[in-house]
Structures are given as structure tokens and as C-alpha cells.
Amino acid sequence: MNEFTYLDNLSGAYAESRILHAAVELNIFDAIGENRMSVQGISKRLKTNERATELFLNALTALNLLHKKDNLFSLTDLAKEYLVTTSETCYTGMIRFESAMWSVWGELVKAVRTGKPIRAPDVYQTNREETALLTFVLVLRYEFFFFPVGWHWIPVLYYILDNMHKQSLYHIRLVHDLSSL
């Protein structure tokens, strides 16, 4: 790959990320599941605009996340393994977290100019939903990368979230910071 191609790919990489984020948010992979489905069927199931859905499904096909044959869409093996929520190796929690960070990255220029954080450095303590999402992702990363044995820990996670105190978030941040190394 020449230097210009590298730079061009780097500049447009956000588009693929946003397509993946939107597909997870729309639950496209769960909607299709093991089926081969038409645009009309998928659009009806998701309650989305048919033309926009077709364009979007074609984009997912170009990213090798869907197969398209005879105008029917189905999941690739990659999508089946990591993008269906019933899969033991589901990665959608992390994708949802990354998607939630999108607006923060959009303010990068402002952060560099001012030297101030875009969001409060509260380690996701202020908003309970953000705290739950971060905790879910951290447990998912731990489970996925070190102990891929299934989803048996979910009731424990809910117990932890219901009984969590702000001091325990220090440990979550420590784990998060260490996992970034």
C-alpha cells in the first residue's frame, strides 16, 4: 500500500465504524439471525425505511458482515460469531460502548485547543446507564479475553450494579486503565 492509499484509508475509516455501530444499534444481526431475508422483511421487522435499509444492508455486505444472494441477505460467519447477542462470543457490548464514545471523539479538536476534557472525568459515575454500560463492557472484555465460558455471570453483574458505591468505581477505572496498556 502506498502512502497516499494509507492516508486515504485512515481518513475515511470512521465511516466503517459508524456503519457497524448503527447496525448493532438497529439490531440488524439479531433480526436476520439464521435466516436469509429480503430487504422488505428486514425493513418490516426493524420498522425502518425500506430504501434506506437496502442501501445500509448493501454497505454491510461491502464490509463482509452480510452475504447477499438473489436479493436475500444472510449473516457471514464473522457476524454470527461476534454480532448476534445470543452468541457466547458476542462483542456487541464493546461496540455499543465505542459508539457511545463517538460524540466525545467528535470534540477532539476542542479538547486539544483548550486542554480541558470533553466529558467530566467522573469515570462514568454521574449517569447510571453509562456506569452500567462501562461495567458490562469491562466484565465482557474480562470474560471474553480470559474466560470465554458463557453468560452465566450476568445475574452477578446486575447484583453488583444494584449494590455499587462510587468508591468501587475506582477499581473499575484501575482495571480499565490497566486493560488499556
Rg, Å, rounded: 19 Å
Q: What is the overall silhouette? A: globular
The ordered H/E elements are HHHHEEHHHHHHH
Would you report the number of β strands?
2
Mean pLDDT: 78
Please state roughly what percent of the residues sit in beta strands, choosing from under 5%, 5-15%, 15-25%, 25-35%, 35-45% or over 45%: under 5%
Count structural domains: 2
What's the N-to-C terminus distance?
A: 28 Å
| Classification by helices and strands | mainly alpha
Helix content: 55-70%
Number of helices: 11
| Uncertain stretches of 5 or more adjacent residues | 144-181
Major beta-sheet overview: 2 strands, antiparallel
Biggest sheet strand order reads 1-2
Description of the molecule:
By secondary structure, the protein is mainly alpha-helical. It has two domains: 3-82, Winged helix-like DNA-binding domain superfamily/Winged helix DNA-binding domain (Arc Repressor Mutant, subunit A, Orthogonal Bundle); 92-179, no CATH class. Helices cover 64% and strands 4% of the residues. The chain has helices at residues 3-26, 28-32, 39-46, 50-62, 77-82, 92-100, 102-105, 108-114, 128-146, 154-162, 169-179; strands at residues 66-69, 72-75. The protein has a two-stranded antiparallel ribbon with strand order 1-2. Strand 1 (66-69) and strand 2 (72-75) form a beta hairpin. The longest helix has 24 residues, at 3-26. Residues 144-181 have low confidence and may be disordered.
